[in-house]
Every structure is written in C-alpha cells, then in structure tokens.
Design goal:
Layout lengths: L24 H19 L12 E6 L5 H12 L3 E6 L11 H10 L4 E6 L4 H8 L5 E7 L5 H15 L6 E5 L6 H12 L4 E5 L15 E3 L2 H5 L4 E4 L15 H8 L3 H4 L7 E3 L12 H4 L6 H27 L4
Parallel strand pairs: 1-2, 1-3, 3-4, 5-6, 5-8, 6-7, 8-9
Bound molecules: phosphoric acid mono(formamide)ester (CP).
Phosphoric acid mono(formamide)ester binds next to α2.
Length: 326
C-alpha cells in the first residue's frame, strides 16, 4: 500500500512543500516551468501579478536568514499577497509560548500560509500536521533535514544554463553531513535524472549512509571535480557541528577550497554554485566566487520566481479545497 504524502492533496497536487523526497519528476518539472513563467514578472516595470490578492502569508523564521526570508517576502509581494514577518526574538515564543500555541494564534488571524525556518529537523512537517486544513506550510529550511525551495532554485539555475539534466555530472563539495541543502539537491537531481551526482568532502563531514541516496563519494577534490558540468560548494556549518571535525579552516581550504587551479579539472563550461552565505577563503576562493563561471548571485535572483511558483501552486491546490478561484 502506498503511504499518503502529506504534501499532496487528493489529486496529487502540491498542498505543502516540506521536502523533495517523495515528489515525482513531473511535479518538479511543473515547478520549474511555472517559475519560468514568473521570471518575466521580475523584469517588468510593475513587478506584480494579482494571483494571491487577499491572501496572507506569514514568514516564521526561528533561525537566521538573509536570502531565503527576503526572497520569500518579495515573492509573496509580487503575487500581491499580504505578508507578515514575525520577529521570533520579539514574539511571545520568547516568553515561553509553545510553537503550537503561536501557530494557533496566527491561525486565528485567518492566515493562509506559513513559511517556516527552524533549527530542528522535522519542524515544518510537525507544523503541517497541526495546522487547519486550509493552511499551506512551506519549509524554508529545517535543521539538517531539508531546504526544498533552495534545491528547486538551484535546479532552475542549472536548467537555465545546461537545458537538459540527463547528461550532467554534478559535484557537491564540502560539509555534506550537516547540509539540508545537499540532501534536498541530491533528491532533486536524482529525481530529475542527471547522469551522476558526486559528493566530495572529508570523511568527518560525510554521512555514513550517503551512497544509499544514489551518489558517488569522493574524498579527493581533484579526483571528484574531473569532467563535471556543475560544482556546488557548501559552507562549513559550524553551528551544527558537535566537536572538532576539522584540523583548521586553513587546512580545509588547502584540501577542499575551490580555486581556479582545481576548477580547471572540470569541463570548460562548468558553472559554480553556492547556496550562500559564502565564506571566502574557506570553501571558495574570491577569484572563483566572483569569476565568470560563478552563477551564485543568479541563484538568488531565481529564488524569487521559484518561490512564487511554489507558493502559487500550493495556494491553488488549497483554493480547490475551498471551491475558490484564484
Ligand atoms: N541559502 C540560504 O538558505 O541562505 P539564508 O540562510 O541567508 O536564507
């Protein structure tokens, strides 16, 4: 018997967006195609469409963010929704109110969607299980578990540059162990059918069971970069590390820092990506981060259209539930 996927409504359409795991290729391509149609809105002089007029979207960020929070806010505003940014440090959560009580209060204000970032893996899923049926929950990053909208904006960026996923060899370099971004990217890339996903990093930063996700493991950066089409570098996530997993940042840069010299082993038309925030001189050299093969700032731009797509798709499934037309 197939397990019910809480993310989908009874017609298989997106209701919540919590993880890439369990979503099929058709749905991922639909997100990318919908985002493509929204990317033109950003280039218009009036950067707005009325799709979510009258809807209220709440940004609930329990953990720091620059890119994700602001692009979610911009995406919601470009869809004409009303946006509330809850300052968690200044909210009643800091006075001991439970997460569920905070949510129930926001629900009582007739909000339509929660965009949630939390340092606990599973937080967005937990919230989705407890909200009223008319509310959609979008995961903006939960602990080490998933960052699905980041993965989709990365897929959008890759498709813009490489057109077809099938022939691509993709390397993800760095702190795979603590990375929710890497986990979501691996699920997206394997579902979209790329030729090969390589994960490259020291043994101390590699999950023990990572090969079960359908990737090839490399501990030697030069070997892993050979003939790749895309390199995704990751930040060392010190805030999630328990104990000393590395000798020093200087040594890490020597072995795993992406430099022009190491990048020369990849294909000549390789693109370099990073979800941000970047740490120059730790996982990436400035010459690469600012170089011609870097698409790091393009990723940020595409985040708006991709988040518009995901929010509008989740809300249109919800409209069906209510018999509404949006
Ligand atoms: N990529 C990413 O999640 O960045 P922020 O932490 O700034 O949102």
């Amino acid at each position: 018997m197939r397990r019910h996927n809480i993310q989908l409504d009874k017609n298989g359409r997106l209701r919540h967006f919590l993880t890439i795991e369990g979503l099929n290729r058709k749905l991922l391509v639909e997100i990318l195609d919908t985002a493509e149609s929204f990317s033109g809105v950003t280039a218009q002089s009036i950067k707005k469409v009325p799709l979510l007029r009258g809807k209220t979207i709440v940004n609930l960020f329990f953990e720091a963010s620059t890119r994700t929070r602001t692009t979610f806010e911009l995406a919601a505003k470009r869809l004409s929704a009303d946006v509330l940014n809850i300052n968690v440090a200044a909210s009643a959560t800091s006075k001991g109110e439970s997460l569920l009580d905070t949510l129930h209060n926001l629900q009582a204000m007739h909000c339509d969607m929660f965009v949630v970032r939390h340092d606990r893996s599973g937080a967005a899923h937990f919230i989705a299980q407890h909200v009223a049926p008319h509310i959609s929950v979008i995961n903006a990053g939960d602990g080490r578990h998933a960052h699905p909208t980041q993965a989709m904006l990365d897929m959008f960026t890759i498709r813009r540059h490489k057109k077809d996923f099938a022939p691509l060899n993709i390397a993800i370099v760095g702190d795979i162990l603590h990375s929710r971004v890497a986990r979501s990217q691996i699920h997206a890339l394997t579902t979209l059918g790329v030729n090969e996903v390589r994960v490259i990093g020291p043994e101390t930063l590699m999950p023990a069971d990572v090969e079960a996700l359908g990737v090839h493991v490399h501990h030697d950066l030069r070997e892993g970069l050979r003939d790749v089409d895309v390199v995704i570098t990751l930040r060392l996530q010190h805030e999630r590390m328990r104990g000393a997993l590395l000798p020093s940042e200087h040594e890490y840069f020597r072995l795993y820092g992406l430099t022009e010299e190491k990048l020369a082993l990849a294909k000549p038309d390789v693109i370099v990506m990073h979800p941000g925030p970047i740490n120059r001189g730790v996982e990436i050299d400035s010459a690469v981060a600012d170089g011609t093969r870097s698409v790091i700032l393009e990723q940020v731009t595409h985040g708006i259209a991709v988040r518009m797509a995901i929010m509008s798709m989740a809300m249109s499934s919800r409209a069906n539930l209510e018999g509404e037309i949006i």
